[in-house]
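Q: Entry one of two.
A:
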Amino acid sequence: MHCGKTPYTTWMHRQLRRLHDGVRATTVVFLLLIGLLLGPVASVQAQPAEPLALNLETMVELGLRDSYRVRQLQLEVERTRSLLSAEQAGLKSRVTLNVSAPQFQAISDNKWNSTLQRNELVRENTRRYQFDLSVRQPVILFGYPTNGVLSLNNRVYRYTQIDGDSQDTRFYNRYFIAYDQPLFQPNRMRNDLEGARLNLEKSELKYQSDVVGFIDDLASDYFDLVSDAYKRDAAEEFVRDLDAAIAVARELVANAPARASEADLLQVESVNAQESVSQTQSSLRNRGETVKQRLQLPPGTEIAVVVDLAIVPVSVDVEEAVRLASTTTPRIRQLEIGRRENEIRLDETRGNNALKVNLGVTYGREVQDPRFQNLWREPRNSYTVEVNATVPIWDWGQRRHRIQAQQFSLDHAVLSQERVRSEVETDVRNIVATLTDYGRRVTTMQKTLTLAHQLTLSTLDRYRTGDEGLADMLQALGREKTTSNNYLNAYLGYQRALRRLQEVTFFDFEAGRSVVERFGVATVPSTGR
């Protein structure tokens, strides 16, 4: 059965078509809006990241920020700092509670009976519950540990003796003050505290020395990077000069075909020079990857090095440099600490197997009663005085030889300190002389390089006019290349001497302040654990 179109169906088809066209238009508008919104984002993402401008300050900052080596050194300082805190805490009050609850004894033992004048096998059957509370305080006078200990004590116990079916129970309470003082012995409180302080100072000095050494390693990497970049630029400049000479040679060959070999010779030199450019670029790329790995930079990071070999020669006062190297550097202070540690060990060695006297005094109140409630009623005075002495008589010279051995160690430390001071003075004077010489050479080579480049240009002009031959042209190019290399070597020598002086004196003569202050490594911040 065939149905024709009615007005209703025609109206419905028209409305569906309008809806379809509206949806399609809305979809197009929606897609356009998405494109407008995402377009700037995509363009931003497509833009290459800016190269990281690398100079010495930036390299040191990045190297110290994420260095595993620096963090390990900081942990070592924190360890010795905690040990010092432990020693300092040992000079404060300490509270202890000793508990024996219970202590049962049912045992037979031989004991002397003074009445019968013979040994008897005695059966002991006791029950004991005891508590000892003590507050101990090392005695410090005017900040000086005296090696003595003052304590407040309280002893309470319950003691029961069992004999068959009978029991005898007693309670005991005593609270007293006690003072113990060793005499004629090394002051171990003072020595342990000073030893902990010296250990902390040694670890901080080692931290400073190693960090400055790490900074020197970073500086070496940076100047190696500068050297490779300079060699690349110099090689590219040499290629440009050869290309200019080849262009001139081709002009000459057009007028004198017999000189065609000159253009070929220059072309060979240009190919070799381009190979040198490729080698320097490869070396620079490898050096950059090594630097990025050391600085823990993302693999895709691009670094840019500004090559500028111009310097302002530093004026160094030799006597001031010697004074800094001989008095303020960690190396000298470490030698002084080693000497002091040997003095402490000598003091402790003298105290071994020597006369020792221990004085102990107590005074308090005590109560003994069958009833626990009466332990704080009507106490009686109690005191003790005790003097113990150890007097060495004969040890076949053992103590004397040990003291001699430790004295030799102390003398060795003193001689090492004097030797290092003498070596440091000589080393500083040589470094300053080398630095001055390299500074003069850098200034001279900088002017000479400018002159050599001008001579190359003038030789190229004379080669064009026929006043100079090819040999003169090649000699001028080689002279400029040699001068460029000498300039770079003088610059690197100057920087090495400056870093060496900085490492020996711990003073930055360019910035006019201490190295540890300039790079913020004077102290290690506490983690507060």
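Q: Entry two of two.
A:
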Amino acid sequence: MLPVVDLTRFTRNLVLKSLNTRLLFAWLVGIPFSYFGVAYLENFYVTPIGIALWTVGIHTLIGACFYYLLGKIFREYGSRWADTAMIATIYIALLVLVPALYFMAKPFGTLFDAAVFYLPAELWLTFALALIPALPLTAWLLSVARQRRWNESGFYRFVDENLNGLLVSVLFFAVYLIFASIFNRPHYDADDIFFDADGNLYRWRYATENYRDYYWRPAHPFILIIIRPLVGILAFLFRGDTLFAAFTLNALVGALCVFLIWYFVKQALGKPLYALLIAVLFGASTTQLAFGAIIESYIYLSAVALIFLILLLKDSPLYLQVITGLVAFGITISNVGQTFIAHFFVKRNLKQIIIYGLLIVAFVVPLSLLNNFFYPNSQPYFWDVSTLEGEGHNQFAPTLQRADYLTRVMALHSFVAPELLVIRDGWPFPKVWMFRASIKKDPMRLANYETLLGEGLAVVWIGLMLLGGFFFLKNIRKHDPGYYLTFIFTLLFYFALHMQYGKDAFLYATNWTYAILLFLALAWRELADKRWFQVVLLVFFLLLLVNNSQIYLTMMEISAPSVPYSVWR
């Protein structure tokens, strides 16, 4: 009888723990988040038993996360009401934004499959019943965690120290995912629709057997062995659906970039609230909203550049820097230049940068051969210079007007969205661009600010940049110039490159948006703890969300008439 008594006692203790007020509240608050995750997975696991199992597993983990989160709020933020109010405002804004954007997209039935994000009515009862066992399972999981002292583990410490960065990244992931599920569907069966991006090409290359670069360009020498395996891993979770895997991965990498901005600023300056404000400004920027949603190569380049900066900040081993540099080269050759610039100015070690360069050179050829071994005839080798002739249509003579427009795209439009250009030139879809070079003797064109909100935010952003410039010059001898010089020369590198290359310069904005914002974040450090400055950044962020989310509306309004029916798979 002893085992029966023990089992009864165990069950009773578990039930009592499950009735803990904090645990109950965590279980309740987590339901909408579990619903979102289960609804998304329902696209691949359609049986009631599959939904029940996913609900139990997901809600158990989410309940544990919210239990921990509530404890952290009571423990750390109760006495800092001003910080708590600002952080809460950020989260409330993002929690409102996600459903607001969902309902903004819902009327565009030919573009948006709203059913991707909600459960069919016949599965509601299954979901609700499966929530019940998640409560005692959460109590059990927390009990195991205490017994094994998970709060002393490296993983727990990492999460605890970077919680705000992780949470805002998850919320931005939800934003990017909604629109990644729209702008990467097969009905967008042409390139250059949005910001001159090759969305159709990269959807094919990442998510179908048609991996060949039909433009036959050497600029992305081993991109396939970097991205396609990641798509394959996600596709395994999605039961082989590579399309969902590709746009989910794109949104995940966009969210990763937000986290990396948080992590860099927090590690560099040790100011968590300030790091959070900088991270959400980055996440809400025009660049992130656009390329967190559009499948291309550029969001991956931003993530790689930020990872390389963090490796330098943490003084990580050289081999990790080499791996990151090789990834940058493999995705787009020119982007390895960012890593050399950062290494040169941050480390200022000539011997080490020579070793770094030699190791990069030693591995790029074997990796290119490996790429074409796994994906035969996928693209030309980067040393085949004859294929560069095909890039001539993207090259333009440098002019003062192009310099003016490029400066505005880099400094303003990458952060504060203007009214987008609509180009109707007989293409299967109207084009929605930010900047249009002078093509076939047509005049150069640039998107402009046409609303009071857009103009006002642009003026404030100019003021914030000038303020950053002032503090940079004021403290130029006070702080190590390594990262400042890295960001300045990165901007100069891309300015020089795109003075002559690119039809829509905004397509390349992921290469400089992070650099501008991190430069300013370091320059503003003297104001980081000033409450008035934090409030300015917070209000600017809230208004930026309102203004910049309109680019999604414009993109849908312009392209929807060209999609007369829905083609979801």
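A: Comment on entry two: The CA atoms of residues 231 and 249 lie 7 Å apart. Residues 1-84+124-152 form one domain.
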